[in-house]
Amino acid sequence: MFENIQRIPDVVMVENDPAQPDEMKAGCFRVKDVCVETNCEDDRLAVWVTAGDSPLCKVRLRWHFAGRLRGQVLGDAWERSYGDLAWHNILPYQTLPWYALVKQANGTTGYGVRVRPAAICSWMIDTEGITLWLDVRCGGEGVLLAGRRLLAAEVVCRNYKGIGTFEAAQKFCRTMCSDPILPEKPVYGSNNWYYAYGRSSREDVLRDAAYLARLTEGIPNRPYFVIDDCWQRDRYHADGTFEETYNGGPWTPNAHFGDMGTLAGEIRNMGVIPGIWVRLLQDNSPDIPASWRLPHNGALDPSVPEALEHVKGIVSQIGAWGFRLLKHDFTTFDLMNRWGSEMPYEMADEGWHFADRSRTSAEIIVALYEAILESASQHDMLVLGCNTVGHLGAGLMHMHRTGDDTSGLMWERTLRIGVNTLAFRLPQHRAFFDIDADCIGISDLIPWQYNRQWGRLLAGSGTSLFYSVKPDTLPHDQEEELAGMLRRNAAAAEPAVPLDWENTALPQDWLLDGNVATFNWYEPWGLRVGCATGPIWEKVWKEVSRSLRDPN
After folding, report:
1. Considering all CA atoms of the chain, what is the largest pairwise distance in Å, rounded to the nearest integer?
2. Which pLDDT tens digit goes with each residue over 516-539?
3. pTM of this prediction?
4. Residue 49 gets which letter from DSSP?
């Protein structure tokens, strides 16, 4: 049964005001000073919203099904995923951000909105119908449109027969995004976070880059080395002690790094492309006025023009130093004050708003991503978004970190976060952007026999492979294997296919280079409770942090 929703909805709700089908007039619904219009435009259903003086929070559209729906459902995530994506039975109370796929006996149906909508969009599916929620708030309070006509979303719906669910998902992602920006070549290399965890220096970074250059010697497509959180001024105090509780700006180098332009040039002279991490909305520069900051957490408010110009200036400075990959991080957390795993139903808490209440949160976030891309493009920098909203960033970032941190400290976390996000967000690869499912974090805490499998999967997946390891600490055979993975990943490959993704959240059977590869992810005792996000993970993190503070 295919239910096409590219038609006038059966029910519209604005706040708590419902409209029954007979009250809809040519796709137009009015209540008080709010007007919701729906009309088919080409191959999509446009949803327009107009409001006068009333603060507008949410619009709810509901389509009734002709018969009872039976099947399995797959949704997306608000920003990164956290090991929680999977096909499942119909859960009427579950919020499905951005889009949903429904698998039935006669095919797969996709329900979604085109990328970069002006609303935070989510779906709810039950056996009797489907509901689209359009969150048009400004932060956690109603937007003040003042008569402006807002194109809140463009609804798309497609049915695919005769192909598998994975191919259907790929095709549907391309339907939702017609204008991705993509790297010209595969992007791969190294990142220093998962072994240094912020404790690094200019000398350390040069050793990292030299090691990467040696591992990739002779490969025409040169690798990237990404300096992660460690280089900014307030990571270290003036006396050289490490600051653990703050990882923001000012975005000037600390004493351990010196001149960043010189450092970028030294990395480039090794045959390695320099990249860098930055948290653009967290900045303690003393000259930033309070009016540029959000009221609930003190992060920069990108709806303030001067604050947005400040962000663009940071990006331009990094580009002028010579870095050619910008990994910007934390923007969702710094705006919403919580992680995607803490957003079961909606992105924003109530009780706060951006300075510019005339625009929705979605519009403000899109404008932020546009500004970052504009400044980065002036210096030919690739943009990698981490903790960013993929559906709002598609077409505005070349790459997207699609999952939470793999860590390199616990295999279960790499398994849950890495394998799950790679499998279930892989359909977005080269449809929205290039995806980065995060690093192979190499340490003594994870047996090589497991990391080898993660590396082998990434190497042949068609997505980015980054490793993180202290230079010259691997046995020769492991180093040779890692070099082979990098060489494989440097060459363009067709995206992998998780063949058993309908049956498990951690697919083991994959199609790589046209051949079926089977992975044995599980240690003999299986998985440990609380290993990926719970108490065991927190204990390991504290122990590692303590050992980094005191190497002896």
Report:
1. 75
2. 999 999 988 888 777 787 888 888
3. 0.97
4. E
- The H or E element spanning position 64 is strand 58-64
Helix, strand, coil fractions of the chain, as percent rounded to 5: 30, 25, 45
Tokens encoding 429? 């690869």
Q: What is the mean pLDDT of residues 380-392?
A: 98
> Do the Cβ atoms of 480 and 216 come closer than 8 Å?
no
Smallest CA-to-CA distance from 280 within 252, 253, 304, 248 is with 248
Token pair for 359: 């625009």
Mean pLDDT computed over 313-342: 97
Mean predicted confidence (pLDDT) in 167-193: 98
CB 510 within 8 A of CB 501: no
Burial of 155 (0-12, 13-18, 19+ CB in 10 A): buried
Q: Answer for the pair 263, 257: CB distance below 8 angstroms, yes or no.
A: yes
pLDDT tens-digit map of 114-141: 999 999 999 999 999 999 999 999 999 9
Residues shown for the chain? 552
Q: What is the DSSP letter of 414?
A: I
Closest CA to 458 of 209, 254, 186, 269: 186
CB within 8 A of 152, min separation 6: which ones? 47, 48, 49, 59, 117, 118, 119, 134, 136
| Domains detected in the chain | 11-176 (no CATH), 189-494 (3.20.20.70)
Between β-strands 382-385 and 399-401, what pairing exists: parallel, antiparallel or unpaired? Answer: parallel
Other CB atoms within 10 Å distance of the CB of residue 146: 10
**Whole-number Å distance between alpha carbons of 381 and 376:** 5
d(CA 486, CA 430): 20
What the block records as the tokens of 232 is 């900014």
* CA torsion through residues 312, 315, 321, 322, sign: negative
- Encode pLDDT of 339-364 as tens digits: 999 999 999 999 999 999 999 999 99
Cα distances from 92 to residues 110, 126, 189, 327, 342, in angstroms, run 17, 4, 42, 37, 20
- Residue 267 pLDDT > 90, yes or no? yes
- Adjacent-strand bridge partners of 328: 278, 385
Whether 551 shows a pLDDT value over 90: the answer reads: no
Q: Is the pLDDT of residue 20 over 80?
A: no
